[in-house]
Every structure is written in C-alpha cells, then in structure tokens.
Design goal:
Blueprint: H1 2-15, E1 19-20, H2 22-29, E2 42-44, E3 48-51, E4 57-59, E5 64-65, E6 70-73, E7 85-87, E8 92-95, E9 98-100, E10 106-108, E11 113-116, E12 119-121, E13 123-125, E14 138-140, E15 143-145, E16 150-151, E17 156-157, E18 162-163, E19 168-169, E20 174-175, E21 183-186, E22 191-195
Parallel strand pairs: 2-5, 3-6, 4-7, 5-8, 6-9, 7-10, 8-11, 9-12, 10-15, 11-16, 12-17, 15-18, 16-19, 17-20, 19-21
Antiparallel strand pairs: 1-2, 13-14, 21-22
The protein binds coenzyme A (COA).
C-alpha cells in the first residue's frame, strides 16, 4: 500500500516538471472537443489554455511556453467567426503571460520572445453609456506582431495594434498604436526611444 502511494506521489511530482503537447494539456483540463496531435510545441505543464476549438491554436515549429501562462482563444457567441492564436516558428512565450483573443485574432511571427507578465489582448468591451459594460458586446480587433520581436516584461499590447518586424518593446510599456519595423519603443503610451542598428 505504502509503495503504491509512493509511486503515485513520484509520478505526480515528476509530472509537474514535464512538458506537454497542447492536446495533452487540453485533455488534462478536460475542456477539449477534439484531440488531435497537430503541434509539436513544447508547453510547460503548468499552463492554462481555454478555447472553443483546439484548432484555434496554430503553432509553428519549436514553439515554447514556460510555466504559468493563461491563454484564451475564445469568442463571445457561437455564431461568430473563430478566434485564433497563431504563433510562428521558434517563438517563445516565457512565464505568467496573458494572451486573450475575446473574439479577435492574435498573430505572432517567427523567432519572437515574449518575456514575462505580458498581456496581449485582441478585443475591447463595448462602453456605450446606456448599458452596463458587462453585458455589452466585445469589439474584436486583431493584434499582429511581426518576426524577431522582443517584448519586455510587463508590457501591455492593446487591441488592434500592428507591430513590425524586429521591434523591441521596453519593459512596462503600454502599446496603443502601430510600431514600425526595427524600432525600440518604451513608455506609456509606448513611443520610439531608439532604433535597432
Ligand atoms: C528596451 C531596452 C532593451 C533598452 O535598453 P538600452 O538599449 O540599454 O536603452 P537605454 O537604457 O540606453 O535607454 C534609452 C532611453 O530609453 C529609456 N528607456 C529604457 N527603458 C525604458 C522603459 N522600459 N520604459 C521607458 N523608457 C525606457 C531610457 O530612459 C533612455 O531614455 P533617455 O535617452 O531619455 O535617457 C531595455 O530598456 C528594456 O526595457 N529591456 C527589457 C528587459 C526585459 O524585460 N527583460 C525580460 C527578460 S527577456
């Protein structure tokens, strides 16, 4: 009996340091519609993925997720178009990040680095005065991020923003407008502080 308990405990403990495919993760969270091993992304076991369809995650080669990310690819109503998250080859999502489509789409290019505590949000709540915000329809606005983009810790990327290739976003910035290729931006709201040379 004790040995059985020990081996169960050992297997549970070893699982906590494992990396899983998104299908395995989805299965574990018991919110999967269809299990399909279509991605070879390396995903730390301590992540939370929420989605309408697992296919709404489209990940390229060697995509990496560290622990404690919360990733939502969901829409408000079933009659709306799918809400997707695309992540390109060799891109990496560090720890404690928050990616949330809310009816829009998030496109992240190849070789991107998303560090820690970054939020990328692809919709707003409606804010008309004559209705409480909670019941208003979400307004989807896609976020598009190019290749080779480094997003520093604590950055917030707001709905509808397009970020060019090679951009660096300094820690703590709030990105409210589009950013051109190879700019280094910082601050609230984020402005160009220098260029990659
Ligand atoms: C963007 C970054 C790489 C720039 O570093 P750098 O080239 O050494 O730049 P400097 O420190 O010379 O700063 C250049 C200017 O930008 C400003 N700046 C730098 N970081 C800033 C930030 N996070 N927010 C606002 N302004 C910033 C500086 O104050 C400086 O302004 P000044 O010219 O008026 O004095 C760095 O500031 C940064 O944010 N790194 C992210 C670190 C991180 O999040 N790591 C996570 C682990 S992957």
């Amino acid at each position: 009996m004790l040995n059985k308990f020990k081996s169960l405990l050992t297997s549970l403990l070893s699982k906590s340091t494992m990396f899983l495919t998104i299908s395995e993760l989805a299965h574990q969270h018991n919110n999967i519609i269809k299990i399909r091993n279509y991605t070879k992304a390396k995903i730390h076991v301590n992540n939370y993925f929420c989605f309408d369809k697992v296919e709404n995650f489209q990940f390229g080669k060697n995509v990496f997720f560290g622990p404690y990310n919360v990733i939502y690819a969901t829409k408000q109503n079933s009659n709306e178009p799918d809400s997707k998250i695309y992540i390109g080859d060799y891109s990496s999502v560090g720890e404690q990040n928050n990616l949330r489509t809310g009816g829009g789409n998030i496109y992240i290019g190849n070789n991107c680095l998303i560090s820690q505590q970054v939020s990328i949000i692809a919709s707003n709540h409606g804010v008309d005065k004559n209705e409480i915000i909670k019941t208003q329809k979400w307004i989807a606005r896609d976020v598009i991020i190019g290749n080779d983009v480094w997003i520093g810790c604590g950055v917030q990327i707001l709905p509808g923003v397009k970020i060019g290739n090679g951009v660096v976003i300094a820690a703590g910035s709030v990105v409210t407008k589009d950013i051109s290729d190879y700019c280094i931006v910082g601050g609230v709201p984020a402005k160009v502080i220098k260029y990659r040379v």
